[in-house]
Amino acid sequence: MKISVIITNWNGLDLLKKNLEQVIKMSPEAQEIIVADDASSDKSVHYIKELQKKYSKLKLITHKNNLGFGKNSNNAIFKSKGDFVVMLNSDIFPHQDYIKNALHHFSNPKVFGVGFAELGNENWARIFWQNGYLQHEPGKDIKKTHITGWLSGGGSIVRKDLFQKLGGFDKVYEPFYCEDLDLGLRAWKSGYTLLWEPKCIVEHRHESTMSKFSKSLLNYVKERNRLLSVWRNIDDPKFLSINKLAMIGRVLSGPNYIKIIRAAKKQIKKSAPPIVFPKLTDQEIFKLFSDN
Fold first, then answer.
1. In whole numbers, what is the pLDDT of the chain averaged over residues?
2. Total structural domains in the chain?
3. Whole-angstrom Cα distance, residue 234 to residue 53?
4. How far apart are CA 84 and CA 6, in angstroms?
5. C or N terminus of the chain, fewer CB within 10 Å?
6. What pLDDT shows up at residue 278?
7. Rg of the chain over CA atoms, in angstroms?
8. Within a domain: residue 233?
């Protein structure tokens, strides 16, 4: 069983200095620790190269142009050598055995991946349908292993072969937001299981480079991708009819929502169809979470 750890980075030198050596020390099971640098303009690359002199299993992937979170992650995972891949944000500080405590779950071949528990914010994702959109909220039972709606792209471990089978993170959501939700839904629909493990403890220090973007841009992309997550994943006719009514209501209450709809349609036109191997229906997936 080979394991790769991947840390995505964009101008996160300060975060790397705080967390990277901790990741290396807390990941003895990993054969390689890969930092996927997304065309940083700070001294991130220089710092990693200096650290490579100290840690032989530290590797570096660089790009000339910024790819965005999803494409950067996909590229690194596809190039990794592990059978299982740990995905971490650069602001994640892992605790001892955070990988070890997840591995026994993979004795079940249907387990797609396992999400880590953020210290002080321990929760799994309960997904449901309400008011014409996909909704989610923190799961309440946090003392035992639980199914989860998706796995965080910044704190989880996945089977590489299944990640590749589903095409990884869908580029339709570029530059960010909803990639992990979308992948989780496609995994569930394809008959796989996603778990959250409270014994896989990490600290998420919430110093992400997302703070470098304006709030207006973040809100715009979030709303567009929220709509895309419905159009790309929901095929139940009843749900889609309700979504149309909900969109009309959003337009009437705020005409700017027309821009969101147009932007979502534009993204779909230039993107390939989602990769999924349907086994469960929308209703069946939501029932899994209503029963837990």
1. 94
2. 1
3. 49
4. 11
5. N
6. 96
7. 19
8. no
